[in-house]
Amino acid sequence: MSRRLVTTGVQGLGPLPRLVHEQAGEMALEGLFRAVDLPLGLLDRPTSRLLLVDMAAVFERAAALLGNPLLGLAIGRAMRPEDYGVWARWAAAAPTLRHGLSRACRAVRYYQAADSMRGQLLGDHARLSYHALGVPVEAGRQHADHVLPSLIGFGRGFLGADWQPLWVEVPYRASGAAKDLADRIGIEVRYDRPGIAIVFDRASLAAPGSAITPGFAELRRLVHRGHDQELTRTLVDVVDLRLNDGVVGMDGAATRLGLRARTLQRHLQSQGLSYRQIVDTVRRARAETMLAGTATPIAEIAASLGYDEPAHFTRAFHRWNGCSPSTWRRVRSVAVKLSAAV
User: Fold this and answer.
1) Burial class of residue 103 in the structure, from the number of CB atoms within 10 Å of its CB (0-12 exposed, 13-18 middle, 19+ buried)
2) 83 with 193, same domain?
3) What percent of the chain has pLDDT over 90?
């Protein structure tokens, strides 16, 4: 799979959208997302995903917009490792730091559709690194800076709030504001390295953990998602993202992935799938979520899913569930009430 196709969770933006809104206003925030061809509506859905290169672009443009060359570091400091989702909470709940690093390196693919985290033993040292796959070094400094505090925070979850690694590594060169990083974090920084990393004493790997393990249902949903074929999974993410603008055409989805429509079609055929099936899968999940969790009128749901007419949505929903959207919503509401009463 091309590295361009790596997707990631919208949680990774952290407080960036809020800071841009507070410091530059709503129009500036909308313009920021529009410049990267991202719908602002994805922020209303915590399960949304976007291409990693697009997330990095948002960080770079936001730093320029706010005139803050250390914005990425500020965003990272405002986040905890657990803010990245259930995979990070599961890793942080390991019995020891060694187990935690192993979990993080295995589970990150469920969050980012890529093996972007690695653990290494280097003599008396241990190294935990993150690689922003598909993001050019010169276009990903802010994103790299935002990852660094989370790596350090992960270690502190096992070793205490005052713990510091021996040194940290970043992929970019020491120039401009980047030279201030060591002073800002109080740790030696080694520049022009293969990824973003923390290096610490190997003996620390035995440190015990103390966090609470996420619920089994959360972990099951996470693992189930991770079994999807990678390009197909990425396509599902892109279709879901584009639905925020009510568009579903295959040509646009292929372009977003950096592919030709014919290439995408051949891939789907090799998996025994069609583009319509992918769109149906995303539309159905979105429709059921909106019907179950909101009072949004059927016509508005239909429009948000890219249907020209509510009747077209009703026919599709009947094909999926054997009943109309209004009937499905009513029956589910009654079932929920009965369950609560038991």
Assistant:
1) middle
2) yes
3) 50
In a domain, 292, yes or no: yes
CA separation for the pair 258, 297 (Å, rounded): 36
* CA atoms of 112 and 52, how far apart (whole Å): 8
**Residue 326 belongs to domain with CATH number:** 1.10.10.60
**What contacts 335, CB < 8 A, 6 or more positions away?**
none
Q: Are residues 171 and 280 in the same domain?
A: no
**Is residue 140 situated within a structural domain?**
yes
Query: Residue 138 to residues 30, 89, 192: CA-CA distances in angstroms?
Result: 24, 31, 11
**Count of domains in the chain?**
2
Q: pLDDT tens digits, residue range 156-212?
A: 999 999 999 999 999 998 887 677 888 899 999 999 999 999 999 999 999 998 655
Give DSSP secondary structure letters for 168-193.
Answer: EE-SS-S-GGGGGHHHHHTS-EE-S-
Which residue range is the domain that position 302 belongs to? 228-341
